[in-house]
Design goal:
- The protein is about 50% helix and about 5% strand.
- It has ten helices and two strands, in the order ααααββαααααα.
- The protein folds into two domains: about 80 residues, no CATH class; about 100 residues, no CATH class.
- The chain has about 200 residues and is mainly α.
- α2 runs parallel beside α3, α5 crosses α6 and α9 crosses α10.
- It has a two-stranded antiparallel ribbon with strand order 1-2.
Amino acid sequence: MKHSELRHQPRHVNPRIQDIYVFNMGRLIHNEFLRTKKYEQIFVLTHSLYFFYELTNTNHKEREETQKLIRLCKNAEGSAFVSMKYEEIQNDYQAYWHIIKDRTQAPALIANCMRNIIEYFFNFVEKLDFPQVFQKPELQDTRFLAFNRYMNRESHSKGQNIFDIKEFDYDSFRDAFKLIFEIEGYPEHYQKMMK
């Protein structure tokens, strides 16, 4: 392989190596900024839960005294900073549910979060292939066609499928999403997560 060809090959980073980078960056920030009296105030923004846990103080009392947690929320109504407690931190799965409960979020975001929940829950918990979930007769109703099309075409592995969702009826999407959990025998899980 020529040097010029090698340069254009996609670089895939081993997830374990990425974890080491995140850990090292967390240690660097701790040593240079957080464990010093040089700075009165430091702002660290992240969407990475792993990185967040690397930066938060594990000692509850010290964390209360030295760290303030704020969530930046953004939806169709605007943006807001909201104070939060450490105990309110959610994992990705819980965060997806939080987003789909907010009908003011962008339609593509809501639909994508629904897709991520279905993939996670039914691939890992039920061991069902993603397309099998949508083969149920109850989901073939005309009202759910846009939902089914979006869920089955919006794989991030295919660049041509990434587009801003045009047909979005929040109530129909939510009803189809709920129906999936009911059909598969998990209505309690849906109700718990939608509280």
